[in-house]
Structures are given as C-alpha cells and as structure tokens.
Amino acid sequence: MEQKLRRDLNMGDNLRRLRMECDISQEKLCAELQRRGCDIGRTTYAKYEAGELNIKISVIVELKKIYGCSYDEFFAGLE
C-alpha cells in the first residue's frame, strides 16, 4: 500500500512570511541561493512555499543566513 507524505502548509507559510518580511521576490531570492551554491529555480521555490515539495536542509541553512533568523522561525506553528 502506497503512503503519501502529508504536506505541511505551515512550512510553506513560514517560508513565504520570511521572504516577504525581507521584501525580496522569489526571483531575487533564487538568484541569491544559486549564487550560494543552491541550484533552486523560482518554480521549485514556489512549490516549497505552496507546500507541494519538501525543502532541502541545505536550502534552509542558506535561507537562515540570508534572512538572519533562527531555525525556529522556519518551524513556527508546526507543533
């Protein structure tokens, strides 16, 4: 029996909130991530925010550096 992973929309909401707080577009964010070695396109990042894809830890590490926030900010409300 195939089991589907539950999509966690709160993580996507947190990703969107952090990006909007920094007043940066998905395009500019992805360009900065690519500059830092994360091969992420805007379409893929949009799927992270929509909760359609699980984000890689390496991307979260770089986002933490870009946003200057704690890891807790990414997981707020997921308890």
Structure notes:
The protein is 54% helix and 0% strand. It is an all-alpha fold. The chain has a single domain, classed as lambda repressor-like DNA-binding domains (434 Repressor (Amino-terminal Domain), Orthogonal Bundle), CATH 1.10.260. The longest helix has 13 residues. The radius of gyration is 12 Å and the shape is globular.
List keywords for this structure.
54% helix; mainly alpha; 434 Repressor (Amino-terminal Domain); 79 residues; single chain
Write the layout of secondary structure elements.
Elements (H helix, E strand, L loop, with lengths): L8 H13 L4 H10 L6 H9 L6 H11 L12
Helix pairs in contact: 1-3
CATH superfamily: lambda repressor-like DNA-binding domains
CATH architecture: Orthogonal Bundle
Number of strands: 0
- What can be said about the biggest beta sheet? none
Mean pLDDT, nearest integer?
89
Following the backbone from N to C, one meets helices and strands in this order, namely HHHH
Query: Unreliable runs, pLDDT <50, ≥5 residues?
Result: 1-5
Give the terminus-to-terminus CA distance. 28 Å
* Portion in helices: 40-55%
> Which range does the strand content fall in?
under 5%
CATH class: Mainly Alpha
Q: What is the CATH topology assignment? A: 434 Repressor (Amino-terminal Domain)
Structure described in brief:
This protein has 79 residues and is an all-alpha fold. The chain has helices at 9-21, 26-35, 42-50, 57-67.
